[in-house]
Amino acid sequence: MALPLPQGLVPTEVAFLCEMEMVTVVPRQRLESIPLLSGDTPVLRPPHRAPMPLWLALLLKKQRRANIVPPAWLHPASLADIIHHETNVDPQAFSPPPPPPTRADGRTGRARPFQENIRSSREAPKPGDDPRLAPPFLPSCTADAPGGYLPYHWLELAEALLAHAADDVPAAAEVRSLLRDLQEVRAAKMRGSTQSLEGGGGVVVLRGVGAMELAESRAFVLGVVDGVRKLGASAEATRRDEEANGGGGRYGGGGGRGDFEDSDEEMEF
Amino acid sequence: MSYYDLDAILTDAEKVPCKFELDVPDLGYLDNNPSQGLKAQTPVSLPLWLAELLALSSRTQSSNPEDSAPFLTLEMPKALSNEVVSALKADPRAVALRDQTHNMYGLATRMLDLFEEPEMCAVLRRTFVTRAAETALHARKAGATDDVVRGEGFLSGLEEWERSLFRRAHDGNKACKEWMEGVKK
């Protein structure tokens, strides 16, 4: 009650974090490397594509010094595919997140994101040891990101691109309407996902859900989970008691958590 | 549950039907009969906090649980009666829970603590999740379209837990929409 902010991130914070995502830009002017806290940006030479954080790319776009190459999944055909997957192929779950990047030698899990220097083979880290494999550090929104998969920040990035770089997105109007459809389909799934809690042991599978969708429905889903927990609290207590009693019998009443719990009823003073 | 939780206080004040196990002098006014004492087995309605206390405490000093005799016996309140529960079993969305009591689920959790009713517990849980999904749908649509009339009946039947769910779902949607309209700037 003290702080009026809701639990978790609010949509504006999520959108801010999304600005850290890397996108591919096609520069129109030369620009020297800029030393930033997150590392130096690549030198921009006009016909060569370069990866840039979204915020810088948007800034350059506004100054007409670069064009942004939209990621493959933002293409209308890819979005239509995803909608098809969501509605027909797998109407229960969300469409899967992009697979981890693969190397040419077929080993997965060793991403080569932006600016990672090719380390000498002697100090190559063990597989699974790369701290950059989490969503914000994967190049999931650059031009070479795989199509047909929605990355973690899909909605925010798409909205930002459509708002500021609509001329760079092919078939922007179609993309916009497809995004609306996709958003509705997934919101309906999000609402439906709480239904699986009915049995008591249900877990809501949130694989492939985007950051903005989480921010939107976090409070609601937590509210439902909490309500189900409160309604089932007495049944749960009974179940535990029974379990503890059964266990107590089996182990000949030897000490244990269960015995401690019912000691009020069993002990005679 | 906070000490200042208004819903908890209101749930505490819900009347539940109960019967005294013994004659109580000077309590006749509970049965609209102030001139005489209250007879045993007269059905009266007491607030939950008082009834619970009297039903659980023993009027004799003996600590043996076998012959502990409570002051009164509790019954299920009307909101959780068989009719309501079977109506909920048939179609959770068709029942206006708010007409039963404003704190339906709050009262139900308290009563489930006192009575062992695994079936009612399952029905209520199913009711809650089914209605929650419906509530979220209305929360998303609220303000976006003009067809208020369609959802009005359902929304006015929401009880307190569901109202807070509606508010949460609606706030989430609203924040998201506001952000989306603000992206352009």
UniProtKB/TrEMBL annotation, chain A:
Database matches in InterPro entries: GINS_A, GINS_bundle-like_dom_sf, GINS_Psf2, PSF2_N
Chain spans, region Disordered: 89-134, 235-269
Assembly and oligomerization: Component of the GINS complex.
Annotated GINS subunit domain residues: 120-230
Domain DNA replication complex GINS protein PSF2 N-terminal: 11-69
Pfam families xref list: PSF2_N, Sld5
Superkingdom as given in the UniProt entry: Eukaryota
UniProt keywords, alphabetically: Chromosome partition, DNA replication, Nucleus
Protein name as catalogued: DNA replication complex GINS protein PSF2
Compartments where found: Nucleus
Predominant location category: nucleus
Automatic annotation (TrEMBL), chain B:
Record keywords: DNA replication, Nucleus
InterPro entries listed in its UniProt record: GINS_A, GINS_bundle-like_dom_sf, GINS_Psf3, GINS_Psf3_sf, PSF3_N
Location of the DNA replication complex GINS protein PSF3 N-terminal domain: 4-55
Family matches, as Pfam families: PSF3_N, Sld5
Cellular localisation: Nucleus
TM stretches of this protein: none
Gene3D superfamilies per record: 1.20.58.2050
Domain called GINS subunit: residue spans: 80-180
Sequence similarity: Belongs to the GINS3/PSF3 family.
Complex and partners: Component of the GINS complex.
Record function comment: The GINS complex plays an essential role in the initiation of DNA replication.
Protein name: DNA replication complex GINS protein PSF3
